[in-house]
Amino acid sequence: MRFGLNTFLYASPFTNKDVSLFKKLKKWGFDTVEIAIEDPSHVDPAFLKKASADAGIAIGSICAAMGPGRDFRGSAKDQKTSMKYLTALVDQAAKMGCPRIIGPIYSVVGLIGAHDDKTKAKHFKLVVKNLKKLAKHAEKKGIELCVEPLNRFETDFLNTTDQGLKLIKAVGSKAVKLHLDTFHMNIEEKNQADAILRAGKHLGHFHACGTDRGTPGGDSLDWKPIVAALKKVGYKGDIVIESFTTDVKVIARAAAIWRKMEPNRDDIPVKGLKNMHRVFGNK
Fold it and tell me: Could you say which architecture CATH assigns to the domain 2-279?
């Protein structure tokens, strides 16, 4: 099991110049980095691959940024824009030697509403259709697509593990897995450990986040049953810290971060990694 960090903590957008972060993460003890690519034109895959190799850290995942205009359940234009963006991420992942694309790769973040059953069914059908097409391309490139349920304040489409499993089953591709996040699960699941057990072999990615979106392991969450559940289902993928601070203004606003989570931004990855090693019994 490897431990990683999402780059949103330090950069938005992430560009080639931000590869200086790789050596810092390696020095702190991280095994992987999760790169949030907001626009494929911002990075050169070959450059990032070399920089990560030079730093001795793996690019474990690419985090999709589903901003305005990227929506598999939206207009024909939005669906086309989403497909172009996500296809480009798959291609870049393959060039970087990165195994997976993760995140809410189904709809723009922030679209919420009390849709009637007919509209919900239409949305589901559109997402399945588009994910099937994207999954075929991902299969050819050897890339996994890990779909993340978000909390009710960020989407009305996919909030729970059970909804995620329903979507994965409907898509029916070996390339499509589930991505679970402790922050979202803390809001939406009755029991996080039980949700992980239900995900089972379909779990492809995992975010370790504090209940306040700060430092994981320094929060109110009971990590013991969560870790036990991950081990029971045989999860051997990355455990990625995805936390936010007020330092990156665009992301802070998007994630509703209005105060400092720690006195110093570096405290989040350093303390978080130490906590994760402790709760997983590594150190």
Answer: Alpha-Beta Barrel (3.20)
